[in-house]
Known about the structure:
CATH class of the largest domain: Alpha Beta
Order of helices and strands: HHHHHHHHHHEHHEEHEHEEHHHHH
Amino acid sequence: MSIWQRQVIQNPPWQVFWVYLPETGDYTKDYKEAGRRLDALKHSRLFSQSEEDGEKDSLSGQRSALRNAKCKTSKEYWKEVSKKFTAAQVKPDGKERLDSIGLIKRFAELSRVRSFPSTSTVAGWDFYRLAKEDAKPELAAYRDELANLKLYRARGFDSDFPYDFDLFFKETLTAKRMEDSYGIKVTEKDLTAAKSRLDGLVKKVGFAPSPYYAILLLDGDGIGKKLDEMKGKNASGEAFHRQFSQRLSQFAAKTIEIVQAEQGGFLVYNGGDDVLLLASLQAAIRLAQKLAQAYRQAFAGLVEASLSGAVLIAHHLSPLSRVLADLRAAEKHAKAVQKDDWGNKDTLCVGLSKRGGEPLLARSRWKAVEDFETAWVSPFREGQLANSLPYLLRDDLRVANTLEEKAVSALLCYRFRRQASESFKKEAQSLAERWVDWAKSIEEKLSGSSKSHTEETRRQAFEEAVNWLVIARFLGQGGKE
């Protein structure tokens, strides 16, 4: 109880800041002064130091895991607690240790009223949609076989497949994973029939599900800058502010329309100018594009506005804390470009985070990736461009530093044609020229004016243009390891 009091009552996980001041009759001036005071308040240290002793919780790793005086360790305590719950609620044998906040989030009423899919379910979403369309008998046969194992039904509302989509991945069907994830003890022989049914389902669909999903973080550019530019005083400044807020509300409503499970999107947070969501691998960039377009349209006629942010592709078993950290780093990378007079950066960064390495990052203006699926992903999917193209281009660019610009373009065009199928060589030439222009546009976004271009920014721009091809290849292969 002392841990609970400290974490929930004395040091709650959120803080609320507010200020007020008398009106002077100059709305714009009053608004700016209120903003200045609020910034000052947020930068003030108004909280006491909190000592979190002992073993930390297994979710955030920041706060003390709940325990009592009878148990020597929190692991021992949670080993006893887990006996009262299913493995889906609390992992057995002390493998999961919750703090007060984790406990509330796990068992609060809201968690029963509104469920949210696991990262495994999001990763398997593209596969599931095709299975329902093209392999319904095989899907039903696999579902019925799993019923014999008496597994926890995480998606009990879905009669077609009421289980978590981690069961679409063959590595889940092992005796150890069944015990760790579902709390049931079976032998490898007990799982033979289920593995056979899953093989039949995968064969009918035509491909195995990708173990990767995407998480998106998008944020409006230069909100403070736009509000600082409120014209006039009194009524005119207030009118602009009201209209601006109304446009944000319109975008928030449009976001709910765009981000739907049927389209592979799962909305986590929708705060007006910023959005956080999970998405299936093949839907992620398309959803980001729709949101960026909706944001521009929401402000049309009032002010020129753009979204910037990141799409991070991650493995479904990667710790979510690490994924979120990589996502925020990718968003910061997207924002580290030149802005216009209204504070707009208009940039998307896509990150590919494979297990065991640093994320591969690629930035671009939104306009350059409008047809990313058809122009760049599709040629790799259809075998029109060789999978080795991005890596050979990277090697070419290492020796291209000594060449003039025309020679570099000729070398890159040659590489595209050389790595294209016979029937695609003409299109490959066109793609090569477009890719060179794309790299130049990235360079301009990094450096601002042509006068400030340097050898380093040029090298970085081509590196990120190559990374876009690596990502296109990855998506074209269906997100295979």
